[in-house]
Hints:
heterodimer; A: about 675 residues; alpha+beta; 5-stranded mixed sheet; 19 helices; B: about 350 residues; mainly alpha; 3-stranded antiparallel sheet; 3 strands; about 65% helix; elongated
Amino acid sequence: MKLPRLISMLVLGTAAAMVAGCGKKDSATGAAGATASHPTEGPMAAELAATLESESDFYIFKTAADLPEGLKWEDGSDLPEFANPDAKKGGTLNYFIQDFPRTLRTVGPDATGGIRQYFWDFVAMYPAHEHPNFPGRVFPGYAREWAADPASRTIYYRIDEEARWSDGAPITTADVVFSLYYYRSTHIVGPWYNDFHKKTWERLTIYDEHVFALTMNELRPDFLVRCSEGFYLFPKHAMADFGPDYVQRYQWRILPTTAAYTLTDSDVRKGESVTFHRVQDWWARDKRFWRGRYNPDRLRFNVIRDIDKAYESFVRGDLDFFLPMTAVPKYWYESLPDNHPDVAAGYIHKTRFFNRIPQPDWGLWMNRSKPLLDNREVRLGIQHAGNFKLVAEQYYRGDAVQMQTRSDGYSWRMHPTITSRPFNPVKAREHFAAAGFTQQGPDGILRNAAGRKLSFTLSTYRPDIRDIMSILKSEAAKAGLELNLEVLDQSTGWKNVQEKNHEIALIALGRTPELFPRYWDFYHGANAYQDAYLAPDGSFVEKSAHGTPNPNPTRVRVQTNNMTQTFIPELDRIIEAYDQTQTLEELKPLAEQIEQMIHDDATWVPGWSLPFYRLAYWRWVGWPDDFNVMLSMYSHQYFLFWIDTEAKEETQAARRRGEKFTPTIQTFDQFKEP
Amino acid sequence: MKFALNPLTAKKLRRFRAIRRGYASFLVLAVLIALSLIAELLVNSRALVVRHDGRWHFPTYGGILPGNDFGLDYSYETNYRELRDRIAAEPERSGRGDFVLLPPVPYNPLENCYPGEFYRPRPPTSTERHYLGTDQLNRDVVARLVYGFRNALIFSGSFIALTYLIGVSLGCAMGYFGGWIDLLGQRLIEIWSLVPFLFVVIIVASIVSAHGGMSLGWLLGIVVLFSWTGITYYMRSNTYREKTRDYVAAAQVLGASTPRIIFRHVLPNVLSTLVTFAPFTVASAISALTALDFLGYGLPPPTPSWGELLRQGTSNLKAPWIVSSAFSALVVVLLLVTFIGEAVREAFDPKKFTTYQ
């Protein structure tokens, strides 16, 4: 599921986003729970009927006889499974969340929180899911089979007759209709969803209770995945009272789910913990691609606000695994070194797994609309003054790799040869000198003839990287460049860069696994200025030669991701062509050109990326032989692990007696980029 | 000077000196402050004296000397420890009398002391002169402490001057003029002082940071803005009391102007309140700065500060030298200030033979 943009951008490498806690007062409203007593009265039925009538060119109802001839139905049976079918069911997973969720809704205000992934993002079902080891291919979800027809930009899905909601009700096309109505409704107070589901789909066609077809507005190379993973279902039969008061009414309502885990009211202890339990006789438990997953009977999440405390909880054995070890080297090397008694005795295992997904694009984003940064020589100097090699080698102890292009980490390289410019104070000074900065002041900072200091503000909205900023500052001084650090909190800092008030920002946007990168958001002139095209004589032009509405470069466009304020009409033309491509073969040469132009323009200094995750877990947590899958962002995302209760007793007894096991410290690099 | 000559004041000072714990604390703190003012000579990566190719250099104060000046192949600031090792490695240079004299702790608070090695806290060693170890960015803890102390002193000194300037002026005005000014001022102060200090400071700090960056001056301004109210109460009541005394009436009869009465007659008589409060104000200023830095709303990195050291320490409990250094330093300084404060209070207490139970 694609999260609302802003939120997905903020929720970067960290395992959990932070939402504030809440009081106890609302618990009564969730009384319906996952039991069968769903509301039967409400405004939904009438509103839905009216919508279907007024949008009859979007919601189209046909009969099974209208299904086109010659559809080629597929069910992904040629793809291999990725879970271990022998995984042990049972036990309880104990883990932590940093903050109690403000709501149990999955959509709407405050819904994007740390815990939603356990009842939605990681567990809910699409009609078909992208295979995590074969990007671009899909395996069945609640649809038994599908037939893609790229010519009409349509995919036909046949819902599995066995597919059930967690309360036993069958999943039907009525739920699909309701879900799209839901996402397009203003009641959900989710403008991102409204916009996305209005822009993405041309129409929804219903053939019978089980067959439906989604037609997209555009055909892209990842059409099959894009269409299949468009939205999660909502249960029509349990939401008769869906209406204008949705946000309040559904704040703590527990809805039937397509997922393997659900909640009852007694599982939610406000402010303290949430415990999910496995759906009894979940319909998909023995289906291919789903067996061997979702193994623990219960998932218990206690609120622990401080990560250092969570770590202490883990080494006491209260948590089964500890995940936030990737971005902070301290836990891996200092707190839990390989010679830690519990690691050396084999009670705690340490594993590093290389995934292959686009990582957050850490780097220096220079705002071209600020004085001096509009000068390419200054930007080139800054490229050579950013010592990310030091960050990768000494802060991350050689675990991080330096990024080379904007688009590292996709399963293919956008540009075969571009590399980032190395840190080199001499070269940096040469470029600064070419921009007129030739005098070195008594503080070691360069100045130009007019006495202007070569000094910029370096901001971030990620307080956790303040140490890296300090490192960059002292290294940049060697090139005669002064960076004044500005560490803002998340919301203020995000506003700062979205309103293009920054000079240089050290930030990253999180990226979901996609087949190819997005350039329009970040580099198209329309996202930099309200009006960007002028004729050679300076007169105003309505549209660019390629149909882009014309902005005027004096008016900065805010709330877009073009945070380098790049506006190069030639680049815009290529990006527009790139966004029209339908196959990877068409797309690749354009991506290469775009990468070259971005590199030449030098507004973004490639930073570092951590193309892996690492974690520690107690011996009783089992994993598949190859540990995890290529497109996993987190180790627990696909729920491939299991809790071995016998091993837990054995380990605890052995630990009391001082018996040792073979230490397990392993690295899985089968998906490591060469 | 005038106050010092006043026999009453002289007596108070004699009593202060007689209170040994307070007086000793005062001496220790004075020495610490004096040392922090010349910290560049004691804790610094710049050499005190360099003799190179027969020429003398004194790099401590003034602009940077680029590496090129000493025949090194870079134009940023010279690394004097490297220069020292280089000279020591070349016998003909040391034979010519070239040398580098470094301060006792040859590190500045911002530099990575272990270039080429991983960033991680390292325990204290005296061989490398990291007497309190290094922090998670390989920076010397002594250097961070010393320069952090100086920042805290500058902060608390300016803080006390500003809060007293505002607080005393307004307090005296309210007490002296009374009536509507008093009534209105009191209500405004009551409202203002109910604003939750830390939250507002955090909010204002985040706004200020987003518009041009936080600095010591800004931080000071914000904290002062919400801290001047406390002293007004005491000044107001004292002035109120003094106003009715005969000497004020006498001054009025003699035709003294209002400012003259307030500043020349009333103020010296209520000054003892100020003096007794001053050390405690210093303590609260240091605590406020430390708290804000600890929470990440204080001075921008990489400015050395105690709050930042404490935060590093609490998240690196495996490196106890960080948290224990910062914590001990904080406790010692606050204790010294409090001892001084108690002694001053006692010295200025007109009831000499009262004992506090």
